[in-house]
Amino acid sequence: MMRHTGAEILINLLELQGIDTIFGIPGGSNLPIYDALHKSKKIRHILTRHEQGAGFMAQGISRSTGKAAVCFATSGPGVTNLLTAIADAKLDSIPVIAITGQVSSTLIGTDAFQEVDTYGMSMPITKHNFLVRSAIDLFEIIPEAFRIATTGRPGPVLIDIPKDVQNAQVIFESYPPPLEPEPPKTVDQAAIKNAVEMINNAQRPVLYIGGGIVHSNASAYLQEFAHKNNIPVASTLMGLGVMEHTDPLFLGMLGMHGARSTNTVLHECDLLLAFGVRFDDRATGKVSQFCADAKIIHADIDRSE
User: Fold this and answer.
1) Which H or E run includes 262?
2) In the beta sheet, which residues pair with residue 70?
3) Cα–Cα distance for residue pair 148/196, rounded to 1 Å
4) Rounded to an integer, what is the distance from CA 110 to the centroid of its chain?
5) Contacts of 241 (CB under 8 A, 6+ apart)
6) Which domains occur in the chain, in start order?
7) Sheet containing 69-73: order of strands
8) CB 1 within 8 A of CB 172
9) pLDDT per position in the chain (305 positions), as tens?
10) Whose CA is closest to 181, among 214, 216, 207, 233?
């Protein structure tokens, strides 16, 4: 049997998830977590000058590795400083795990020193969030947070841990293994067959690609598809890097930051292949008038898009 505090359990679970770098700033409500982190021989901590910077640095790790990354902040101003980076991670579909300290459970809702409603404020800007009520719940919450952040459309998950939960002692037998992301759902073969027919019949097809191609590690497949079918490619900001900028099929960015020639090609296409993108205003202007004369094939991991 083992006996660890909630904070020690947290750090050990992060080690099991393969985390080797954490960005953050200590404060009154997350000091037990930092005490446990100090004992870790596997995780390096980078002290940032601002919690927002911690969130964006975690994003950088995630964007460059394709894996979930972690940042820490204390309660109150630490959390509010972090929110901009979390919101950005949500909009850009980046799997960041934000772990925040909170005042003790008995003080929640009393306007205690440096208390804010972290759970409520972060709900609209996270893929999921947790308020940990018991240290033993960390065994389920931490692996689940990583699974949620990396399954389907990636996104940030926030875990708010009250100080008394960090200090609570737990007796247990073993640590749970990390959870694997859920496998993608099977694609409708009839829809694929219909798409192939539309592509073969198109006279002026254009590929419209975005960050979903990057997140799915599908750049090589996209390049092969474009060259095999001789289809020009326009990209969003998040999709830059999928195609070489010197590739003769690459049109550059589209939309308000794109070249007039690129937008003209899109406007005149008869089939738009939208892969790993959402039809946001910066790219489309008025969606109702975007490629108005074209048929559209939209492939995205998020059904709501």
Assistant:
1) helix 260-267
2) 22, 97
3) 32
4) 33
5) 214, 219
6) 2-172 (3.40.50.970), 189-299 (3.40.50.1220)
7) 44-47, 21-24, 69-73, 96-102, 157-162, 128-131
8) yes
9) 899 999 999 999 999 999 999 999 999 999 999 999 999 999 999 999 999 999 999 999 999 999 999 999 999 999 999 999 999 999 999 999 999 999 999 999 898 899 999 999 999 999 999 999 999 999 999 999 999 999 989 999 999 999 999 999 999 999 998 988 877 777 788 989 999 999 999 999 999 999 999 988 899 999 999 999 999 999 999 999 999 999 999 999 999 988 999 999 999 999 999 999 999 888 888 888 898 889 999 998 877 76
10) 216
Sign of the CA dihedral with 246 first, then 252, 258, and 264 last: positive
Helix axes 77-92, 51-65, angle to 10 degrees: 30
**C-alpha triplet 198, 204, 208: angle, nearest 5°:** 80
For residue 59, give the 3-state DSSP assignment.
Answer: helix
- DSSP letters for 90-110: HHHT--EEEEEEE--GGGTTT
| Burial classification of residue 211, based on how many CB atoms lie within 10 Å of its CB (0-12 exposed, 13-18 middle, 19 or more buried) | buried
Residue 269 amino acid letter: C
Going through the chain in order, the beta strands assigned E by DSSP cover 2-5, 21-24, 44-47, 69-73, 96-102, 128-131, 157-162, 169-172, 205-209, 233-235, 250-253, 271-275, 295-299
Indicate the pTM of the whole model.
0.89
- Classify 206 as helix, strand or coil: strand
Placement of tokens 């940032």 in the chain: 48
Token pair of 250 as six digits: 């690459």
CA distance 238 to 291: 20
86 by DSSP, 3-state: which? helix
